[in-house]
Structures are given as structure tokens and as C-alpha cells.
């Protein structure tokens, strides 16, 4: 048995050692990461993947609309959540497993193209590469896509040696799975068909290979396409994300490095924003697929009209594909890396690997067709991602090939130096020049880039109610750029939470002055006017916000609250305003509940009841295109939505009780408690309803449960005292508070 294991694993013992090192390094990294506050501060895409996976694990398998993003990674994450429970550890250990598999593929590719020594060095470089370690531990699809792309490339190398239709089919399978992880790989489909033609050199053989390849590719894509047709009602091949991403990277205000759209949206844009702008221009609401096509056309129109500006921007993005600059829109990577020694002191930067890879290409280009194929993969993929906007994680899929070429360069240079070949100096010099190209700041980062990670960190602290710490980050942003969009706004929001209304008002005024087209500052200023009792001014400020963003729920709620507080606004007028806001916010349940409470305060019970019935029939936004899923506080999560629905039922029970409809009051109050057992007031309504119906035993039992659950609730305490006094006096009429 031992001899058999030795025969199997003995030759690959160095790989096992490298994998052991990789595991140790990654577990150490996760341990250090877990001790930082950054552990729970997910970035925008991380939040989206996490919330979407939770939705799928909760049973929402088919979803509600066209996929905005390719689904395979999220379904893998959802499966793990369903199996082991939702945890950041689960997601990050999944990434660790993907990373180990990717190291093995790097080893196998290098061994097949070069030799075992190069393969061991390549695997070691991969195991220790800081960007690999970092991105594997984020809840992002890129490492999985990288692995699937490696599998496809590995099968291409095998097909080059054994040109069978079966191998072509296997290439297609891996391309297909990679495509439903990130559709960018489909750019290689025509290139691979050309490859079949070049190396087969026979029409019939080329046709068989191409057919089997396409069959394998669409075996996984077809179910996604069919699902989009059936569920989303439109023929979107995989996902509808491409259009807006293409526009982000190709417009007059694009810097090529930031996920921003032109002002007034900037970096704080949402899917609802870009959908509204498109519908406003076209005159009708667009489906996700139509929306993607719309933004693609907008980008193409700019490219055609401004070929010079496009070329300069494209070259800038293409340079960053090979530059030693790590760029992220949501996190300051240099700052984050300096918190973790295993990353901070790691010398395997992209620039070093690129320089060594250049040497590897020079040393092996002529004698290896596979090297030429690898270079084509690197160049084609880099050219493809440069069509959009650059982010370090987008170039992650080319990193394994840069790594294996850098390993070949390292071994090749060493062998040349030992053999004292004359070419060694020339190759080393060329590698140095390549390194200088990568390290040289040919294109600087946009000056508005660095504040974004600070804003992200501040917003995370704000969401966790750590307002003084959040304010510190927003002040840091303002120290860099006093006019940076949303910085004054969010600092003012911190002051407002801390009760410093004057400071908050000053911040909002600065935001309005520096960024007058953005709506949030007007809504926040309106909230201050509302608190101060200056209702006409609150309505005016809220109206200014709504003129810029008609569908903003917060601005609509403030406007309605201010209107409800004004004696000059009749109930009928208020109802009309509520229906107008409801239409603009697509029946937002949070707004409807708020509006019903305003009507109840005014005594307009029938109108409030109609609004609440509307709230009960409103549908939760589709998770695939819900902007709230990209944030830490997922407002429209199933739990939050259930609580808000229970709130509507509680209010209906209260209204029915006021109108003497006690059976309905009991019904709605019971439903409210079933949906949210934390609604103490629903227990008050239920007990009161039972008392009014003469069901005293049920009232006593329910009250006992409520008192045990909410021992300090004043309303329940008052109700308990009233019932006690009533029982002592022997009254037959129950006390109804």
C-alpha cells in the first residue's frame, strides 16, 4: 500500500509540499484578517453575492427576473450556505479551496508546457502571490472564473497534442461553465474555432471539432438562457450587466479605473438610477436586457464620435493591465496590505512577476507553441477587459499564466547564467526594461480614486452606528478634496445622528453648493427642517430632492411627513400625494406603512386601510436587480420585508379595533405576531380584541405570553393593570385601552 502511494504521489511530492505551504499561509492570513474590522466590511459586490446566495439558499432558486450578473459562483456559494450555514468563514474557506485547485492547475500547465522544476517554482509563486491570497478570501467570482479558465486552457494544450472531437468537447464544457461565471470568456470562442482550423487543416475535422466545442460550450449556457426567457421574459444569453459596465469604461467622464458614471450620479450610482435615465430618454421602461443594450449603444456612440479620446483611454486601461499598480474602488489595498505582514512584506508584486514572465517568453517563444498560445491568452484577455474599466481583480484570470511564464523565466535565466550563455545578459536586460515599464507611472491614478475606499470604510462604520469613527473617515476624504461628492453629505449625516443639527445643516449646505445636481443633501436638509417644525421649508427642500431623483424613497417619505404636519393640507390632498409617491417608488412597502401611520394620526382610517391593503399586496424587489442587495443593510431582505409586512398587518388590526371590527382586529393582529413576534403593540391589539369579543381566557393567555416576552413594555404593563383592576371590581365590561 505504501509503495503504491509512493508511486502515485512520490513524483509529485514537491507539489504536496507547496500545497501544504499554501494552506498554512492562507490559514495564517485568514486568522490575521479575522482580527481586523475589515473582516465584516464587505465590498459592494461581496454584499451582493452574499445576499443573493442567502436568497437562493432560502429557496428562491429560479429568481424573479433576468440575471443581472452571471450566476454560477453565487449558486456555489448558496449551496455551501444551505449545507453549512451562512458565514463569512464558509465563503472564504470556499475561496481557499478554489485557490488550492488553481495552484494545482498552474503546476500541471507548467509541467506540461515546460518541465517539473518550472512547475514547482510556478506553483510556489502562485501559492505565495499576495493578490491570489487576498482575492481568494473575498466573496468574489474572480478566483472561480480564473480556475475554470485555467481548466479550459489546460484542455486546449491537451487538444493541441491529441486533436480529437472529445477533447474539443471538453474545452467547450469548461468554457461554458466559465461563461456562466463571467461571460467575458466567450470572446475566445471565435479564436478557438480559428485554432481548430489552423491545426486541423482539414475541413471535415475542423467542422467536427468546432461542432463538439460549441456543443460543450452551450451545454451549460443553454439552461441559463432558457431560464432568462422563461423567468425574465427576454432572450438574454447569460446576464445583463455588460452594457452598463461597458459604458462606465467608455464615456466622456471616464477615467478607466473607477466604477463611476457621469455626474450627477458619480460613484454613488444604482441600478435604479441608470434604469431611470434610460427610461427618461427612451420614453418607456426598459427590461434588463434592453437596458444593457441601451448603455452599450451610448458607449458606442461616444467611441465613434470621439475616436481619439477613446484610443487614449483604452491605452490607459491596457497599460494598467500590465502595471504594478493594484487598484480597487472599494478598498485601499496598500493600506489594507500594510495591516497584514504576510501581504506587506511579500515581494511577489505584479511588476516583478511581469518582468520575469517577459524573460520567460524571450527564452521559450521559438521552441514552444504552447508558450505562444499562453501569450495570446494573456493579450486577448487583457485587450478584452480594457474595453470596460480596470480593476485589479479583473486581471486575476491572466495571473496564473504570468506566473508560469515568470517561473520559466526564473529557471531559464538561472540555467543561462550557470551555462554562461551570451544571451543571458540580453534577456536579463530585457526583463529589467519590462519591469521598468510595469513600475513606471506612465499613467497616474485619477486624483478622485483614493477617497473612494475611505468613503466605503466610513459608510461601513456609519451602518454599524459608529458615528464618531465614521466622521473621522469622512473628514479624511474632505482633507483630500473638500468638494468630493457625498463626503459633506455623509459627514452631516453623522452629525445629525449625534444630535449636532447645526453642524449637520452646515455640511448639507456645503454639499448642495459643491454638488448641486445631487439629490441626497436636499433630502437631508429637509429632514432637519422637519425636526425643527418648519414644515413648508421641509417640503420645499424635499421637492428639490425629488426634482433630481423622483423615485427616492427617503425624500418621498419626508415630503409626506411634512405635508401631513401642515394644517393647510387636507386629508384628500394628502391621499393624492401618497398615491403619487407610491407610483414613483413602485409601491415601496416602507413608504406605504409610513404613509398609513400619517393618515391614522389624522383620523383618516378608511384611507389608511386602503394604503395598508396595498402594502400587503406589494411584491419584494427581484434580488437579481435590487440595489439594496449591494449594501450592508439589505433593506429588502426576506426578514426585513416580513417584518414590514407584519407592521402593515399590525396597523390594519389597530384600525379595525378602532372601528369596532374586533374579529378582523384579532385576525390581522394574529398574522402580525406570526410574521414578527417582536411586535409588542400587536400583542396589545390582540389582547384588546379578545377582550372586546368576550374571549377572556384567550386574552389572559396572550397577555401572559406578551408580558413574559416584553416585561418592560409600558403599554402591556398598563393593560395588565387595567385588567387586574377590572377583575377586582367584578365589572362585566372589559377594559379597552
Structure keywords:
single chain; 737 residues; mainly alpha; elongated
Topology record:
Elements: H1 2-9, H2 13-34, H3 44-57, H4 72-84, H5 88-113, H6 116-128, H7 130-136, H8 142-161, H9 165-179, H10 188-200, H11 203-232, H12 242-248, H13 271-282, H14 288-305, H15 307-320, H16 333-337, H17 341-344, H18 350-364, H19 369-385, H20 399-418, H21 423-439, H22 451-463, H23 467-480, H24 487-497, H25 501-514, H26 520-531, H27 535-548, H28 553-564, H29 571-584, H30 589-601, H31 605-617, H32 638-658, H33 662-675, H34 680-692, H35 696-709, H36 714-729
Brief sketch in words of this structure:
This protein is an all-alpha fold and 737 residues long. It is built from 36 helices and no strands.
Count of β-strands: 0
Low-confidence stretches: none
With helices defined by DSSP (H or I, 4 residues minimum), what is the helix count?
A: 36
**Shape descriptor:** elongated
Share in helix: over 70%
What's the pLDDT, averaged over the residues? 91
- Oligomer, anyone? single chain
- Helix and strand content put the structural class at mainly alpha
Q: How much of the sequence is in beta strands? A: under 5%
Alpha-carbon distance between the two ends: 81 Å
Write a structural description.
With 737 residues, the chain is mostly helical. It is built from 36 helices and no strands. Helix 25 (501-514) packs antiparallel against helix 26 and helix 34 (680-692) packs antiparallel against helix 35 (696-709). The longest helix has 30 residues, at 203-232. It is elongated. It starts with a helix and ends in an 8-residue tail after the last helix. The mean pLDDT is 91.
Amino acid at each position: 500500500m505504501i509503495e503504491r502511494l509512493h508511486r502515485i504521489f512520490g513524483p509529485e511530492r514537491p507539489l504536496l509540499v507547496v500545497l501544504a505551504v499554501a494552506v498554512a499561509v492562507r490559514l495564517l492570513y485568514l486568522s490575521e484578517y479575522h482580527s481586523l474590522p475589515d473582516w465584516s466590511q464587505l465590498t459592494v459586490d461581496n454584499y451582493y453575492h452574499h445576499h443573493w446566495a442567502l436568497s437562493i439558499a432560502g429557496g428562491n432558486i429560479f429568481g424573479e427576473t433576468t440575471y443581472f450578473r452571471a450566476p454560477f459562483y453565487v449558486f456555489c456559494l448558496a449551496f455551501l450556505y444551505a449545507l453549512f450555514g451562512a458565514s463569512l468563514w464558509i465563503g472564504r474557506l470556499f475561496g481557499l479551496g478554489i485557490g488550492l485547485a488553481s495552484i494545482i492547475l498552474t503546476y500541471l500547465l507548467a509541467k506540461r508546457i515546460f518541465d517539473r522544476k518550472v512547475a514547482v517554482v510556478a506553483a510556489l509563486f502562485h501559492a505565495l502571490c499576495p493578490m491570489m491570497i487576498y482575492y481568494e478570501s473575498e466573496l468574489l467570482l474572480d478566483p472561480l472564473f480564473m480556475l475554470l479558465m485555467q481548466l479550459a486552457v489546460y484542455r486546449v494544450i491537451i487538444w493541441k497534442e491529441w486533436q480529437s472531437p472529445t477533447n474539443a468537447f471538453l474545452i467547450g464544457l469548461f468554457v461554458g461553465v466559465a461563461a456562466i461565471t463571467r461571460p467575458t470568456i466567450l470572446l475566445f470562442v471565435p479564436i478557438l474555432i480559428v485554432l481548430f482550423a489552423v491545426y486541423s487543416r482539414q475541413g471535415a475535422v475542423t467542422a467536427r471539432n468546432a461542432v463538439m466545442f460549441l456543443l460543450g460550450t452551450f451545454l451549460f449556457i443553454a439552461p441559463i438562457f432558457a431560464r432568462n426567457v422563461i423567468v425574465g421574459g427576454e432572450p438574454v444569453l447569460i446576464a445583463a450587466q455588460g452594457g452598463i459596465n461597458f459604458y462606465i469604461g467608455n464615456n466622456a467622464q471616464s477615467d478607466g479605473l473607477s466604477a463611476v458614471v457621469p455626474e450627477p450620479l458619480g460613484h454613488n450610482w444604482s441600478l435604479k438610477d441608470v434604469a431611470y435615465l434610460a427610461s427618461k430618454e427612451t420614453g418607456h421602461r426598459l427590461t434588463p436586457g434592453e437596458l444593457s443594450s441601451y448603455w452599450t449603444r451610448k458607449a458606442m456612440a461616444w467611441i465613434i464620435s470621439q475616436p481619439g479620446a477613446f484610443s487614449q483611454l483604452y491605452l490607459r486601461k491596457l497599460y494598467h493591465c500590465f502595471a504594478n499598480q493594484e487598484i480597487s474602488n472599494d478598498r485601499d489595498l496598500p493600506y489594507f496590505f500594510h495591516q497584514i505582514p504576510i501581504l506587506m512584506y511579500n515581494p511577489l508584486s505584479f511588476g516583478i512577476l511581469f518582468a520575469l514572465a517577459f524573460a520567460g517568453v524571450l527564452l521559450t517563444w521559438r521552441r514552444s507553441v504552447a508558450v505562444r498560445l499562453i501569450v495570446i491568452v494573456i493579450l486577448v484577455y487583457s485587450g478584452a477587459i480594457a474595453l470596460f474599466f480596470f480593476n485589479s481583480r479583473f486581471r486575476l484570470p491572466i495571473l496564473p499564466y504570468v506566473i508560469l511564464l515568470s517561473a520559466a523565466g526564473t529557471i531559464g535565466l538561472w540555467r543561462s547564467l550557470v551555462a554562461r550563455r551570451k544571451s543571458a545578459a540580453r534577456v536579463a536586460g530585457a526583463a529589467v526594461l519590462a519591469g521598468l515599464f510595469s513600475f513606471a507611472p506612465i499613467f497616474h491614478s485619477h486624483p478622485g480614486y483614493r477617497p473612494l475606499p475611505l468613503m466605503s470604510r466610513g459608510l461601513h462604520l456609519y451602518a454599524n452606528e459608529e458615528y464618531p469613527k465614521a466622521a473621522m473617515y469622512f473628514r479624511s476624504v474632505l482633507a483630500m478634496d473638500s468638494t468630493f461628492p457625498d463626503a459633506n453629505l455623509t459627514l452631516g449625516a453623522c452629525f445629525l445622528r449625534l444630535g449636532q443639527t447645526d453642524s449637520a445643516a452646515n455640511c448639507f449646505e456645503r454639499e448642495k453648493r459643491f454638488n448641486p445636481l445631487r439629490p441626497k443633501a436636499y433630502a437631508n436638509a429637509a429632514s432637519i427642517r422637519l425636526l425643527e417644525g418648519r414644515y413648508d421649508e421641509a417640503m420645499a427642500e424635499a421637492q428639490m430632492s425629488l426634482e433630481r431623483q423622483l423615485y427616492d424613497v427617503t425624500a418621498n417619505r419626508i415630503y409626506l411627513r411634512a405635508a401631513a404636519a401642515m394644517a393647510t393640507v387636507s386629508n384628500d390632498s394628502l391621499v393624492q400625494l401618497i398615491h403619487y409617491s407610491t407610483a414613483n417608488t413602485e409601491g415601496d412597502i416602507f413608504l406605504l406603512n409610513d404613509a398609513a401611520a400619517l393618515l391614522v394620526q389624522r383620523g383618516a382610517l378608511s384611507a389608511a386601510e386602503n394604503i395598508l391593503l396595498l402594502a400587503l399586496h406589494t411584491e419584494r424587489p427581484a434580488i437579481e436587480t435590487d440595489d439594496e442587495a449591494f449594501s450592508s443593510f439589505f433593506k429588502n431582505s426576506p426578514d426585513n420585508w416580513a417584518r414590514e409586512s407584519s407592521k402593515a398587518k399590525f396597523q390594519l388590526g389597530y384600525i379595525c379595533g378602532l372601528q369596532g371590527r374586533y374579529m378582523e382586529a384579532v385576525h390581522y393582529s394574529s398574522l402580525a405576531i406570526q410574521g414578527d413576534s417582536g411586535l409588542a403593540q400587536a400583542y396589545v391589539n390582540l389582547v384588546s380584541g379578545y377582550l372586546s369579543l368576550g374571549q377572556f381566557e384567550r386574552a389572559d393567555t396572550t397577555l401572559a405570553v406578551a408580558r413574559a416576552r416584553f416585561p418592560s413594555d409600558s403599554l402591556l404593563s398598563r393593560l395588565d393593570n387595567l385588567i387586574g383592576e377590572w377583575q377586582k371590581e367584578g365589572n362585566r365590561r372589559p377594559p379597552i385601552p
